[in-house]
Amino acid sequence: MHEKRKEALLYKALEYISHVESGDSLYDCLHNFVGMTNAEIEEAGYELQQYYQPEQAAQLAAANDKRYISLEELERQARTAVEFIVMDGAANTSSGNWILSFDELKKQTGLDLSDKPFFRQLIGTMLCERPEVADLHIDTDCLDVVYYLDYCPNREPEQAGDTEPEAGKQTLRELLHARWEDIHLLHRDVEIEPATIVELDQNTLTDAGKEAWADVLDAKVCRVYQGAYGLQVELDGINPSRLQGFSEMLAGYCSAENYKKWVVEPEEIPALSPQMKL
After folding, report:
1. DSSP states of 53-81 as a string?
2. What is the pTM of this model?
3. Which of 117, 142, 137, 139 minimizes the C-alpha distance to 127?
4. CB 203 within 8 Å of CB 270
5. pLDDT along the chain (278 residues), means of 10
């Protein structure tokens, strides 16, 4: 939508509000609901000075386009630090895990996290948004990062007999052409608490469920085995929190609305057919 179109729609919306509200109600709608400042209300042509209320800091900040050089510098430092952490860890780890000390980070980027709890939290949040990062623990003097092995060029070769070759791995979607009972889905690199899925096959999810959880269905199957939880399927190429959320959803730990939307009711599940695919 181009700027002129946005401006035209804004004025039409304000015009409509002016027809249905007036006086104190109009001011309350513009100032407290829409979030316009007193100056912006005047600029829009309204004469409502008699109803003015004190400005809120959030309103003034949103209306103010002032640049803060100091804030931009902090953002630059944070971006630089995150890029270095990801680049250094993914390039050097062979197992997926890499620990970077605060001293080394300061040496390489100039950013000292040792006495900056806010910055530690910010860097941690930014790292968790990166697709390369599977898990993160921030200690008192270091960052302990787990990377997805797909992003680690020096990862250790897979043990013979433990998993299939990378190119030959099937997805969870393909595995579900068979019917599984009391199954537990685990992540290859990150420990999660799996929920017991009583029944799972290609007909368990509705079309909406298959779309909502497509990333989990497309996760790569490393191996299927009997483990501490019983029948276990080890997966990779998927965010651990998404995998755990999928298992918990199928175990019933979600809202009734979402469960009904994503999971086929037992009586609705048709007989298995080789032609039916996820």
Report:
1. -PPPHHHHHHH-----HHHHHHHHHHHHH
2. 0.43
3. 137
4. yes
5. 68 74 80 77 80 72 64 82 90 87 89 85 90 88 89 67 48 86 90 89 92 92 84 90 92 87 70 42
